Amino acid sequence: MAYEVTATRRRPQRFEDLVGQEFVAQTFRNSIQSGKIAHAYLFSGPRGCGKTSTARILAKALNCAKGPTASPCGECPACKEITAGSSLDVIEIDGASNTSVNDVRQIKDEVLFPPNSCRYKIYIIDEVHMLSTSAFNALLKTIEEPPPYVIFIFATTELQKVPATIKSRCQQFNFRLVPVEKVKEQLAAAAAELGIKAQDEALYWIAREAGGSMRDSYTLFDQVAAFSDGEITYEKIRDKLGLVGVDRLNELFTLCVNGDSQTALLKLDEYLQNGVSIEQLISNCTDYLRSLLLIKNGVKKEALLGQSPERFAEEVLNAWSSVQIERALSIFLNLYRDIRYSLNSRYEFELALSRLCWLKEYVSASEVKKAVDAVKPLLDTAAYPRKIQTYSDGSPVQNQQSVPQQGAARAGNVPGGMPVFSALTSEPGQGAHPFLNGGAEPPLNKSAEESYDGDEWQSAPEGPAEVQLEIQPEALPQSDLGNVTEAKEPLQAENEPQKVQPVSAAVNIDTSSIDKVKEAMIAEFSINDAMLASSIMQTVNWQKNGDFVNCQVENAYEQIQLRQASQKIAAYLSSAYGSNLKFAVEFVEKKEEEAKRELPEKVRILRDMFKGTVIGY
Predict the structure, then answer these.
(1) DSSP state for residue 476 in the 8-state scheme
(2) How, if at all, do strands 40-44 and 150-156 pair?
């Protein structure tokens, strides 16, 4: 007996045998049982998913000697002839070979004659989208009102090429790709029929390569079975078809994760010397990275991965994040598109492999934006220290905001190593800062020399303005509350020598303990300067020695903040104690449990600013 390929031997003969097309099969069974048979059907879908087989099964169901029935017997002469393709009343036409209008006119002449021996005369036209426009037009009237014994079944893989006038005269059925699990089950059954042993991993590979087409999967199965000597294994497929298995890919990508570009490039050369093609290796790497991305997102379905998730290297999964794996997958997808126009496809692959070796350092744009947004307030405060605005007579303005000093970064006001945005600074002699006070301000802060009265702005009165230091009673401990008084004495002007003048206390503060003065100062500064109050809260070991008040802080960035506000703190302390006091803050290195190398000052400042840690120093 002549050899019969698996795709032909296992062609479905009943509606129950259709794999992955349960909706189509159930619809036809119900239609036949109820006697509602249409005169024209249009089957569309990808190749090898059962369109022609369904048309033959429908022809047998309608012409079976026991029918019309949803379950043709397969034993009567009509069923046997249709199965063998020799029935005179079931005519299969290749649309790609019979495209002219003359071929369609022949069909129009034939439909006038009743069937020879069957109940219906059925025309199955495959690849109907290949017919010419004239041929389609010639069919319109025939398929709209055919004789009662004629049924047309059209099959196509490109539904968009079929004219709308044809579609509107047919019942349409969309065939879908067969799921990988069902393809694998059919391959296992085919292997059992032939007495061939087959590993599940090998069958999963065949099913995935078929892309949802049963005919393609059977064809590839026959090819693999031919060189497997009765036992199909993934190792044999890998060696005979020039594939790179998951074990080798684990080895290659582990080198990339460790940054060993030299060994990775040598390993690539070894694979290419063994006869693996560039295109096949790119395809294998792409499938591998896709599987890593699925596992990273919690998808461990074996049918999607092609093998067990335990076979993928844990080192690679733990080293790369989802964003980095997406980046790697994008590199290989672009690589496959680029090699067709490249000077040398091997050079392109080596470049992609080199990029993977530093992929651990890749940071996405969204992550950079989040980091910049998180530290923007700190950067602005560090780059532009607080500057006190005054009236023309030298008295300070109340409720003032932080104002960036012109040329602050170039004048040395920013500590060394601190980041500075050049767009927010100005050269000497270039005029005022372009974004003074951060841009537009509410009306009450519009100008230092204007006040609001009713509906119009009026100039402030000549002469010094009274400065009143207010403390809300609820912001202080009950023990520290006293009689609120006004401070009539103006503060020191900016252009005068660096000298702290005593300011009378706004409240009667308990100065018996420096810690109580610190608590009162935090309560007051929390109202108008929360950043400074937060920095003071981080300090420890406050001491008053004569005219000096000292404290310590374990954060270098907080030390910078406190030094910039030292005059304000000294003014408050002087007001509280009634004498001129100076304020100083000392940085104390935080004690670590394990001895570590001392960080450079610039690195330490950046670490504290970004609230991070230094790894590997």
Answers:
(1) S
(2) parallel
